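Researcher: Let's do a round of design. I'm pasting the structure tokens now; please hold your answer until I've finished.
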């Protein structure tokens, strides 16, 4: 049975209100403390959400020791279409969140420098660049594998549906042909029935391997000679 995925409330960096604070007169240390506090909140939230995603994927002890690709492959095989789409959306949202948060933090630090003729952004950004939500590439790997394998699985499912439909059509067609043949034979004079042969071409009673190509004139001539 598949895992029930619960999309959590996304915490966002309060960019509009924070931008207003940047424009106000305040001590540099107060701004630094406030900015670093938001970085810590963002990193904590990111790690929590990332752990939630891995918990969804690693929901069974028998997955221990498997590669990420193998784990995602099993997740796709054992979960519903709805669960798969929910997980993809969850990963996409977290990726988008981290990118927007990084952009907003950089902009506010540079805006402070610009408005207050300072140069604190260089130190602040060093702190930002060391955070997991800034440099982590695991989301890209998960999203790439999910999308690739999910698309491959959808192609296989689509092909299976097509094959099943073709087999059904062939079965119906074959049944119709047999029905028509039975109807045709039932209308023939009984004295002709022992003389009628249903034949696609040449065959040998001695099971010879060398024989004319089936359904060619030579095959029919050889069969009746």
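Researcher: That's everything. Go ahead.
Model: Designed sequence:
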């Amino acid at each position: 049975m598949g895992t029930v995925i619960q999309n959590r409330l996304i915490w966002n960096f309060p960019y509009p209100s924070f931008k207003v604070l940047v424009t106000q007169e305040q001590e540099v240390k107060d701004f630094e403390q406030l900015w670093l506090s938001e970085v810590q909140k963002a990193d904590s939230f990111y790690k929590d959400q990332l752990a939630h995603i891995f918990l969804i994927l690693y929901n069974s002890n028998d997955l221990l020791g498997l590669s990420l690709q193998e784990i995602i492959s099993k997740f796709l095989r054992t979960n519903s279409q709805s669960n798969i789409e929910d997980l993809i959306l969850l990963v996409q949202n977290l990726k988008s969140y981290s990118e927007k948060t990084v952009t907003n933090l950089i902009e506010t630090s540079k805006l402070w420098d610009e408005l207050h003729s300072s140069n604190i952004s260089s130190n602040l950004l060093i702190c930002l660049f060391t955070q997991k939500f800034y440099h982590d590439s695991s989301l890209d790997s998960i999203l790439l594998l999910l999308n690739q394998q999910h698309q491959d699985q959808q192609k296989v499912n689509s092909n299976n549906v097509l094959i099943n439909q073709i087999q059904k059509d062939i079965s119906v067609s074959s049944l119709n042909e047999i029905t028509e043949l039975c109807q045709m034979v039932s209308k023939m004079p009984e004295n002709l029935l022992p003389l009628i042969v249903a034949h696609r071409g040449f065959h040998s009673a001695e099971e010879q391997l060398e024989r004319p190509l089936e359904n060619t004139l030579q095959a029919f001539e050889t069969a009746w000679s």
